[in-house]
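Database export, one record per block. Field names are fixed; values are copied verbatim from the stored entry.
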Amino acid sequence: MKKNMGNTDRIIRVLLAIVFVALYYAGIITGIIGIILLILAAIFVLTSLVSFCPLYAPFGIKTFCAPKEDAPKE
């Protein structure tokens, strides 16, 4: 798996996961929606840890700035 997520994308996913977990444990969101958000939070954390999003791969999306190979080296 090649990395296809940048640091900003990873940070946003972790922050969303924290918000989802906090909403669930505070009792603000419950039931099926709460369980779905907990599962989504786990997926966000997992994809952030490995820096790879399987949904980005088929579309060729990369959210990081790769160094240019053509740039002259000084």
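Remark 1: Residues 38 and 49 are 17 Å apart (CA to CA).
Remark 2: The first helix runs from residue 7 to 25.
End of record.
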